[in-house]
């Protein structure tokens, strides 16, 4: 059975170890396609997640408390389709022992849900092996972020969250710059960071739009970009008990979660600060959805924290990036000339 994930912070390896198939929705084609316009203030991503849960009657869908929109979406869909939907309580805090206990308790609760929908209880060996495979894949992708062309990297990262595959283009034999960027000399492409919420398959043309306007994305910090990858360990510290292995995995996720919903969100700014400086980023494109107060509220803070110009770019309600936004990208990059 497929288990559709709406957040990269729900441990996919925990689901896979139960014999089910985790599928991150970012890779699904036409995820936001809808014939009806959205009600005012509704996030297209959260709305599409609700629609997905209602239409895919043969799959389970995991919502999270990442934001109010997803939480309310779960409330809306839950009435009609138990027990195929599950709300994973992501702790907003991360500095306290209580956050670690809460995260692990949610993993345990999710495990029970997975058993209810047909999964089986994972052995320590299977969980350890599955977690190690995910860790290796994450590391490969993270390394590739330094040389892979921006669109190919976005596609590979989303694909990893879809089925754990690592599908990267061939690495160039020699490279003069990081992130697959052409040489950054006078008149070269402007190095940009793409920061924000979910970037879906139908949005990947944004990389061409930016390139055509004279920019180059050297840091993908959208929901399933580099922020969702880390290379800290082998996934699960060997443990004598299944609960110990699960706790090890939950600690791993909590330790590496870098997202806008966390309080304080200093970890997001520290993470960004290191990479913006190392990659000589000159501007930030803030990718956000209508109704997403979380990301929209960061625009001024990002400007102040990093002293960089920030372009707020709105994800379309459905389909690819509209022409209107392409014009805004061109105007933003024109200011660097
Ligand atoms: S884009 Fe914003 S409002 Fe939409 S689901 Fe993500 S955090 Fe929530």
| pLDDT < 50 runs, ≥5 residues | 176-185
Q: Main β-sheet: number of strands, strand sense, barrel status?
A: 4 strands, parallel
Structural class: alpha/beta
3D shape: globular
Distinct small molecules bound, one entry per kind: iron/sulfur cluster
Determine the number of helices (DSSP H or I, runs of at least 4 residues). 12
Average of pLDDT = 90
Count of DSSP E strands?
8
Instruction: Give the percentage of residues in beta strands.
Output: 5-15%
Gap from first CA to last CA: 52 Å
> How many whole angstroms does the radius of gyration measure?
20 Å
Q: What proportion of the residues is helical, as a percent range?
A: 40-55%
Biggest β-sheet: strands ordered side by side in the sheet: 2-1-3-4
| Helix-strand string | EHEHEHEHHHEHEHHEHHEH
What is this structure's SSE topology?
Elements lengths: L1 E4 L6 H6 L3 E4 L19 H12 L4 E5 L3 H11 L6 E4 L8 H20 L7 H21 L5 H14 L26 E7 L8 H8 L2 E7 L20 H15 L9 H13 L4 E7 L3 H4 L1 H9 L3 E6 L7 H12 L3
Parallel strand pairs: 1-2, 1-3, 3-4, 5-6, 5-7, 7-8
Helix pairs in contact: 2-3, 4-8, 5-6, 5-8
The chain binds iron/sulfur cluster (SF4).
Describe this structure in words.
The chain is an alpha/beta fold and 337 residues long. The chain is built from twelve helices and eight strands. The strands form two sheets. It has a four-stranded parallel β-sheet, sandwiched between helices. It has a four-stranded parallel β-sheet with strand order 6-5-7-8, sandwiched between helices. Helix 3 links the parallel strand 3 and strand 4. Helix 5 packs antiparallel against helix 6. About 3% of the residues have low confidence. Iron/sulfur cluster binds next to helix 2, helix 3 and helix 10.
């Amino acid at each position: 059975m497929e288990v559709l994930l709406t957040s990269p912070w729900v441990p996919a390896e925990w689901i896979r170890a139960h014999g089910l198939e985790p599928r991150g929705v970012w890779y699904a084609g036409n995820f936001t396609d809808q014939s009806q316009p959205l009600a005012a203030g509704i996030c297209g991503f959260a709305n599409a997640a609700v629609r997905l849960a209602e239409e895919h009657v043969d799959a389970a869908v995991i919502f999270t408390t990442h934001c109010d929109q997803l939480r309310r979406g779960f409330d809306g869909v839950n009435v009609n389709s138990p027990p195929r939907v599950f709300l994973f309580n992501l702790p907003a805090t991360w500095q306290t022992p209580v956050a670690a206990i809460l995260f692990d308790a949610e993993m345990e609760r999710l495990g029970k849900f997975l058993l209810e929908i047909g999964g089986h209880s994972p052995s320590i060996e299977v969980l350890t092996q599955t977690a190690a495979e995910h860790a290796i894949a994450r590391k490969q992708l993270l390394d590739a972020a330094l040389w892979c062309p921006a669109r190919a990297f976005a596609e590979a990262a989303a694909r990893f969250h879809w089925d754990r595959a690592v599908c990267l283009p061939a690495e160039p034999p020699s490279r003069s710059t990081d992130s697959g960027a052409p040489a950054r000399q006078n008149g070269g492409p402007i190095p940009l960071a793409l920061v924000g919420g979910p970037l879906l398959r139908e949005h990947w043309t944004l990389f061409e739009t930016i390139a055509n306007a004279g920019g180059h994305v050297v840091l993908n910090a959208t929901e399933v970009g580099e922020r969702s990858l880390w290379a800290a360990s082998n996934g699960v510290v060997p443990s004598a008990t299944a609960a110990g292995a699960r706790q090890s995995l939950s600690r791993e996720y909590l330790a590496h979660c870098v997202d806008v919903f966390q309080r304080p969100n200093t970890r997001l700014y520290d993470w960004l600060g290191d990479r913006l400086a190392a990659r000589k980023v000159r501007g930030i494109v803030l990718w956000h959805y209508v109704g997403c107060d979380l990301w929209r509220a960061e625009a001024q803070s990002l400007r102040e924290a990093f002293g960089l110009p920030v372009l707020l770019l709105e994800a379309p309600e459905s389909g690819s990036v509209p022409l209107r936004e392409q014009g805004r990208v061109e105007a933003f990059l024109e200011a660097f000339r």
